[in-house]
Design goal:
It is a single chain. The protein has 404 residues and is α/β, with parallel strands linked by helices. It has twelve helices and 14 strands. The protein has helices at 29-35, 63-79, 99-112, 126-134, 167-174, 189-204, 222-231, 243-255, 271-277, 298-310, 320-338, 345-353; strands at 15-16, 22-23, 46-53, 87-94, 118-120, 139-141, 154-155, 180-184, 209-214, 236-239, 262-265, 284-288, 379-385, 392-400. A seven-stranded mixed β-sheet has the order 9-8-10-11-12-13-14, with helices on both faces. Strands 4-3-5-6-7 form a five-stranded parallel β-sheet. Strands 1-2 form a two-stranded antiparallel sheet. A hairpin with a 5-residue loop joins strand 1 (15-16) and strand 2. The protein is globular, with a radius of gyration of 23 Å. Mean pLDDT is 89; it is low at 1-34.
Length: 404
């Protein structure tokens, strides 16, 4: 499966073997794996990667879930012998969902930790995008911002562009929604962009966003946010805040006799949500860009087995953060797999960019890195917490819309 083309390493390793003298150079892929290469982060026996994601701040993700998805996919590949005979390891930095912190974290990982490339699971990747592009550092991850569509070194399986799609609006209208309010954290450019795309999608289906409420967990009052939703006469809530905060506002609305018809959350596909809140979370719907786990199949079994084996710290592997991290890591491993046994950053980028059909082992619909870069995602699955709050229902396995 791996390329056997010979690559000349500029770092020559000298290894004493008794009186036999010196072994130098990288005359073959096998030799390069044994001696290391000139590329940053590529050692004799391991490849070092960097990871950036918001562990703290208003856009914070679940640390155990994000790293669990990474650990699971890397655990799989290492158990199978690594990539071209090298073990894959990583270091991570918290960018707090801030462009400034993202830039600082990327510089530290590249310049001081000497990593080969980055996996970014952040809403603030724009902070380091130009720096990484100028240095030809490969990046895979989640495209929360338009910059992912413009940088050849950045790979994602779904993109945010200046073009909105009407899929979410179609779904909300089919569920009876007619007036919406958006809940979002303050001071997050990435999430503000996402909110704008939702607004345009809803407007295309005749659903106006009549108010936008900034909500910071543990700072703002859920009752005050609920009051604004009621005052706006909204029957739809678009939640781009942590799901536990969304549950609090939703509970307040229901207690006041104003249950919304539609609650569309940017995240929250997580069995922990069900265990923690039960029926309080009923009705929350999450759009997914991958195959819902409830549908089963070989790819989902492989994912769950990897999570259970290599990320036991995640008690419930059925969660959005872990799946997205797993796929983002798989993309990076695919780039390494395609590169020579003595890889370069440019070789990684060129070969992964040439791929015309990538599906993360069946977790996503096939995409092209060659022709699909920067194209907005138009097809989503929609899952909803059932009335008892003990399971997710697949409302739409694959709803496709149009660009606007």
């Amino acid at each position: 499966m791996f390329s056997r083309r010979r690559t000349l390493c500029s770092v020559l390793a000298a290894v004493s073997v008794g009186a036999a003298g010196l072994l130098a150079g990288c005359s073959s892929p096998e030799a390069s794996a044994a001696t290391g290469c000139a590329t940053p982060g590529v050692g004799a026996q391991q490849i070092d990667l960097g990871v950036l994601y918001p562990d703290t701040g208003p856009a914070a993700e679940r640390s155990d879930a994000v790293r669990g998805g990474i650990d699971a996919r890397i655990g799989e590949v290492n158990a199978a012998g690594g990539v071209h005979g090298r073990k894959v390891v990583y270091q991570w930095r918290d960018d707090k969902g801030s462009a400034t912190e993202n830039a600082m974290g990327a510089r530290d990982l590249v310049e001081h930790q000497n990593v080969f490339g980055l996996i970014e699971l952040s809403v603030a990747a724009s902070g380091s995008a130009r720096y990484l592009a100028d240095r030809g550092v490969p990046v895979t991850g989640l495209a929360h911002e338009q910059v992912w569509s413009t940088m050849r070194n950045m790979f994602a399986f779904t993109y945010v562009t200046g073009v909105a799609v009407d899929t979410q609006g179609q779904f909300v209208r089919s569920q009876g929604g007619r007036r919406a309010v958006t809940l979002q954290p303050a001071l997050s450019a990435g999430i503000s962009d996402t909110a704008d795309k939702y607004a345009r999608s809803l407007a295309a289906s005749g659903i106006p966003v009549v108010d936008t409420v900034n909500f910071t967990p543990n700072v703002d009052n859920p009752a005050a946010a609920a009051s604004r939703i009621v005052a706006a006469k909204a029957d739809t809530v678009i939640g781009l805040i942590p799901p536990d905060s969304l549950v609090g506002i939703l509970s307040t609305l229901r207690q006041a006799g104003h249950p919304p018809k539609v609650v569309l959350s940017g995240n929250g596909y997580d069995k922990r949500l069900l265990e923690t809140f039960g029926a309080q979370a009923a009705g929350i719907t999450v759009p997914l860009v991958y195959r819902p786990l409830e549908l089963g199949g070989p790819a989902i079994r492989t994912y769950l087995e990897a999570m259970n084996r290599y990320a036991p710290q995640v008690a419930q592997p059925e969660n959005d953060s872990s799946v997205l991290a797993y796929i983002s890591t798989d993309m990076f491993l695919e780039g390494l797999r395609l590169a020579d046994a003595c890889p370069t950053r440019q070789g990684f980028i060129d070969r992964l960019r040439a791929q015309n059909s990538y599906d993360a082992g069946g977790l996503i619909s096939p995409i092209s890195f060659r022709t699909g870069a920067g194209r907005p995602t138009t097809c989503y699955s929609f899952v909803q917490v059932n009335g008892s709050g003990n399971a997710f229902l697949v409302l739409e396995p694959n709803l496709c819309g149009n660009t606007l």
